[in-house]
Amino acid sequence: MAGPLMPPPPTSPAMPTRIAIIGGGPGGLYAAALLKRLDPTREITLWERNPPNDTFGFGVVLSDETLGGIEHADPQVHEALQAHFTRWDDIDIVHRGTRHTSGGHGFAALGRRTLLRILHDRCRSLGVDLRFGTEAPYPSWLCETYDLVIAADGVHSATREAYAEVFRPTVETHRCRYIWLAADFAFEAFRFEIVETEHGVAQLHGYPYARPVPDHHPATRPSGPQDQSGASTVIVEMREEVWRAAGLDRADERESAERCAKLFADALGGRPLRSNNSTWTTFRTVVNERWSHGNLVLLGDAAHTAHFSIGSGTKLAVEDALALVACLEEQPDQERALKAYEEERRPVVASTQRAARASLEWFENIALHLDQPPRQFAFNLLTRSRRVTHDNLRLRDAQFTGAVEREFGCPPGTPPMFTPFRLRGLTLRNRVVVSPMDMYSATDGVPGDFHLVHLGARALGGAGLVMTEMVCVSPEGRITPGCAGLWNTRQADAWRRTVNFVHEQAPGTAIGVQLGHSGRKGSTKLMWEGIDEPLDTGNWPLTAASPLPYKPGSQTPRALSRAQLTDIREQFASAALRAARSGFDLLELHCAHGYLLSGFLSPLTNRRTDRYGGSLDHRLRFPLEVFDAVRAVWPEERPMTVRISATDWADGGTTGDDAVAIARAFAAHGADAIDVSTGQVVADEQPEYGRSYQTPYADRIRHEVRVPVIAVGAISSWDDVNSLILAGRTDLCALARPHLYDPHWTLHAAAEQGYEGPGAPWPAPYRAGSRRPTTGRADAPRPRLTLS
C-alpha cells in the first residue's frame, strides 16, 4: 500500500459518485452500505487485504445509543443484528476471592464474525464491490481516480502513515500487555477478575457474545462448536514487567492460551481458552490533528483509538460512518461535508478518549487499589473512567451503592461528600474545599472588604474548608501589586477580621491560609490585564532557585544566595506566626505552580550546583527547611498541608515517581495532607486537560504514601465529589471555578441530593431558600396544531 506521497486533487463541489474504501472492518463496511443505500447509482469499491472470514478478536459490544443510530439509518441491518445479540445487565468483579455484582448496566454483544457477515450481506445486496484478499491500490492513485476515498484501515493505517505530514498523527504506546482469547461458554455477566501472582497482578476482562442455542431452535444462531454452549471474549492483561517476569514474552500462541486458562481457572471453571492469531500486544492510542485532506478522509481506528476496557472501538467506527454519511447528505458540497464530519465527531471522540485513558491508566495502576475493601474496590473499578458515577450507579443499582456507602461510613441518608474528615485537631464537617484562588484585589498586601465578602460568602455557602488565595510572605514575593500578604501587622489584623467573620457567621466552617512566594513568576500585571506579563512600570527584582525567566519577555531572576535563603525561610516563619494569631484553622505551604518553592523542586527550574540543586533529595532541601520552620511556629493542634505540582507536563520535568517521593518527604516531616495539583511550572507545558484530570496523581500519592490527599482540577459536580471520595481516590475535593460561579455550591449540592444534616447546615437567615425555587410549568399540554 505504501507509495509516493502525492497530494489529492482539490475536492469537487459535487457530491461523490465514485467512492473507494480502504479496509473491511465494521466502520468501512457500514459506511459503504449507507452510502450505497442512500444513492444506488454510486459506484463503491471496498478493498480488504484479508479473506472475508479472517478476523481478529471475538465479540463486539455496542451501546443502545449506537444501535438506535443504526436502527434509524438502516432498519434492515438493525433487524439482522437484533437476531444475534446477547444481552445482559450485570458486572461481576472478583477480587481476593470475593465477588461483587452490580446490575442495571445494559450491554449488547455479538460475534465479530457475525457482525461482519451481516454487513457483508448488506453490502452485496446493495451492489457494493467487495474485494477481499486484495491490497488496496496506492492512496494517491485512489485519490486521483475516485471522488472520495475513505481510509478505514485500522490502528496500523498505512494510508494515515502515507500522509503523516498532513494528518500529523501521534501514537502513544501504553504500559500493559494484553491478548484476545475466547472461551466456549457464556459468562453470566461482564466479568472482571483480578489475580495476584508471584510476578505481579494480572486481570481478566470477559463478556459473553453468544448464548447457548436451545435444542428446539437449532437454526437461530450461526453454526459452529462455540455456538452450541455459548461463547465469551476473554482479554488477559498485565503490566509489561509482569508479563516478562512470568515468561510470557517467550510463550507462543498455544502456550499463552494454556497459561492464561490456568491463571484464571476459577473464572473459567477449568475450561480451556482458544485463540485466533492471538498475540500479546500493547495498546496504542492514536490521535490525528486532521482527519481529512482533499478527498481523503480517515474513519475509525485510522483516525482515533480508545482503550478496549470501555468497549468503544467498533462503536466509534460505526458512529463515524453514520456521521460521515449524514454530513455528505446534509452539506452542499463534499469539502464542507468532510469539515462538518470532523467538527461533529472530534469532541465526541476526544471525550471518549479521555474516559478510555482514565480507564486504561486505572488498570495499569491496579496494584495501588488491591488493599481496598473488596466492595469499595469494585466501586472504584466501576467508576474508573468517570463515565459511571456515584449518582449514575445509585440509579442502576441502589442496593450495591448503598452497601459501599455503609462500609465507607456514611450515616443513613448522607452522601459521601457530607461525611466528616479529621486532620490533626481539626474536624471538617464535609469533604468540600474552596480552592485557593488569587483575587488580585489587595492594596499594599492588605485584604479588604472584597476579601471579607468573597471568603465570607463561600463560608456561608457550606464548604467544609475555605482557603485564602496565595498569601505572600514579602513584598518581593508577590505575583502582582494586587496580591495579599502577611508580612506586617496591618495585614494580619485585616485577615483576623475575615477569619472572625467566618467563625462567627458560619460556625463549623474552617478557614485556611495558603502561604507562598512568587519566585520567578512575580512582578506581573493583574490577571485580567495580562496574565504572566511583566508590569509596564514599577517592576521589582525577582529571585528564584536559578536565573531562568519564566517565558520569553519575562524578567530574569537572580539565583538566591545562602543568606537570602535564610531570610526567606524566616519570612515564611514570621508570616505563619501572624497567620496563627489571625486565627486561621489550617495552613498550606504553596510548593506548586512554578512559584519559589516549586522552582526548587522541578529539575526544569532548578539548575543549582550547590547542596540545594541536583538530585531530588537536594532539590527538596530548601522547601523542607521552610516547611520545618513553619511547622515549628504553627500551633501543634492545627494541621498543615502542602500543595505540589505532581507533574510539570513537560519533558524532563517532575514525574509521577518524583511526586510520590516529594509527598513522602513532606509527610515524613509532618504534613497532614498533600494538596495535589499539576503544572504551571514552565510556560511551554502541554497539559492533558479533562474532567478531574489531576485526580490520578492524588490517587497514587494517597495509596503509595498513605497520606490524606486533596484532589483538584476540573472537579465540577457534586456527583464527581461523591464518586472520587467513595472510590477512595481522594479524601477531600478542592473546587475553584464552581465556587466562583456559585458561592453556595455546597449548600445547593445538599439541596439537590435531598440532604439535610450536620454536613451542610443552612445559615439561619438563608433557611427559607434551602429548597429550589419553583418555576413555570414546562410540561404543560401543547396546543393541537394538526388533526390526528
From TrEMBL:
InterPro entries: Aldolase_TIM, FAD-bd, FAD/NAD-bd_sf, OxRdtase_FMN_N, YqjM-like. Residues 147-353 form the FAD-binding domain. Residues 756-788 are annotated as: Disordered. It comes from the Bacteria. It holds the Pfam family FAD_binding_3. Residues 417-750 form the NADH:flavin oxidoreductase/NADH oxidase N-terminal domain. This is Bifunctional salicylyl-CoA 5-hydroxylase/oxidoreductase. It comes from Streptomyces gottesmaniae. The lineage of its organism: Bacteria, Bacillati, Actinomycetota, Actinomycetes, Kitasatosporales.
